[in-house]
TrEMBL record:
It is a multi-pass membrane protein. CDD domains: MFS_MefA_like (cd06173). SUPFAM superfamilies: MFS general substrate transporter. This is Predicted arabinose efflux permease, MFS family. It is found in: Cell membrane. Gene3D superfamilies: MFS general substrate transporter like domains. The keyword Hydrolase does not apply. Residues 1-404 form the Major facilitator superfamily (MFS) profile domain.
Length: 419
């Protein structure tokens, strides 16, 4: 297959620009918030609360959001999501003004930040399913795997640069003006998205009752073992391997590397993932996908344990780099499974379930890491999480031999015949 097939479609390139800008802004914003909150509180649990404030609305709204996405036009819905994010980032810009901080109590700033993060969770509940559904309307079915790879690669590249710039910008221009940069990227995404035309609504059941629609989506996911296995495995791994949430503690109190070192640590996993994803455009991962996914998550757990035990900055960076590389493999395989196995009229609902399983487990993992770090210390919490990841992989390999034998070659060939 042509490794650049998806890039030959103009609207897909525009879509990649929008996705890059949004992920860049979102990941940079999350890092700046983490730094600001920990600087204000010096409490590991406060980092976990950031994740909890986003995951509560993201999970509770996810299924309803999937129903709405399947019922509505995708381009305009994405415009509304970006507008919502822009309002939130502007709010964070305002409450980080030195004059506002000087006249406001720490508790007020903290609770205002949590509130805006909560609103961001609502936006995210709609954003993920909308993006997933829009990809399928921009490129033909035969290049879904290639489009999924480039989309995931763009996500990771933005995740590299967003946290890295966040670390440096905190040092160079401070939290307040870093928030201004984030707001600027959200406006760029909004303007760029207007270049994509409106898309048809492929759902034949417009106006279907909400609960009937949600039940259909859940039944499909739980009956499709390939999707269920991939989501469950990734959810548990991310939930217990959420060491990234504790990076401010490692940067400030264990490795003593400051905000710039924090930016490098935060970017390291995404650098590894981006390199792996770019390589995968030339070496597809669909053959023996089940075994490759299991091996990737197992290697991820090993890397997390090494990071937790390390007292050397560069060993820690290397461990995070390789954790990102193998996580990139996991992400590509999971996205390919979702794109190939999901009917067009159910993409919003399936993507919402995916966000509940995997996307939200990032924030739940942040809360779990913050809570366990409070109870047993940051190092022990990270090692515990990595160990639980290894146990999960072993259990999945033993209890689900069908998933272990999963191969996506036939699915790809069928889509090529349809095209």
């Amino acid at each position: 297959m042509d490794p650049y097939a998806a890039l030959r479609y103009k609207e897909f390139n525009t879509f990649l620009l929008v996705r890059f800008a949004m992920v860049f802004a979102w990941s940079m914003q999350f890092i700046v918030i983490e730094w600001q909150v920990y600087s204000l509180t010096k409490n590991p649990l406060s980092l976990g609360i950031i994740g909890l404030m986003e995951v509560i609305p993201a999970v509770s709204m996810a299924l309803f959001a999937g129903h709405i996405v399947d019922q509505k036009e995708k381009r305009n819905l994405l415009i509304k999501c970006i507008l919502g994010f822009s309002v939130i980032s502007f709010g964070l810009f305002v409450i980080s003004m030195p004059s506002v901080i000087a006249q406001t109590t720490t508790e007020t700033i903290l609770y205002s930040t949590y509130f805006l993060v909560f609103l961001g969770g609502i936006v995210r509940a709609f954003l993920g399913p909308t993006i997933f559904s829009l990809i399928a309307l921009i490129v033909p079915k035969k290049i879904y795997p290639n489009a999924a790879t480039w989309s995931s690669t763009t996500w990771q590249m933005a995740s590299v640069l967003g946290p890295a710039l966040a670390g440096f910008s905190i040092s160079w221009i401070g939290v307040h003006w870093s928030m201004c940069v984030i707001f600027g990227f959200s406006l760029f995404a909004l303007i760029t998205l207007l270049q994509i035309s409106k898309k048809p609504i492929l759902n034949p059941k417009i106006g279907e009752p909400v609960f009937k629609s949600l039940k259909e989506g859940l039944n499909f996911v739980f009956k499709t073992k390939a999707i269920l296995g991939a989501l469950t495995l990734d959810m548990i791994a991310v939930l217990f391997g959420g060491a990234v949430a504790l990076l401010p503690i490692f940067a400030q109190d264990i490795l003593h590397v400051g905000s710039q070192g924090f930016g490098i640590l935060r970017a390291a996993p995404a650098v590894g993932a981006a390199i792996m994803m770019l390589s995968s455009t030339h070496f597809p991962l669909h053959k023996y996908a089940g075994k490759k996914l299991l091996l990737a998550v197992f290697a991820f757990g090993i890397c997390i344990i090494i990071f937790g035990l390390s007292t050397s900055f560069w060993i820690s960076v290397a461990a995070l780099f390789f954790s990102g590389a193998v996580d990139g493999v996991s992400m590509i395989i999971r996205q390919t499974i979702l794109q190939l196995k999901t009917p067009d009229h159910m993409r919003g609902r399936v993507a919402s379930v995916n966000s509940m399983f995997v996307g939200s487990s990032n924030e739940l993992g942040a809360f779990e890491s913050g809570a366990t770090a409070k109870l047993m210390g940051a190092v022990t919490a990270v090692v515990f999480g990595g160990t639980m990841t290894l146990i999960t992989v072993g259990a999945t390999a033993i209890l689900n031999p069908r998933f272990r034998k999963l191969d996506l070659t036939k699915d790809i060939e069928e889509h090529e015949k349809e095209a």
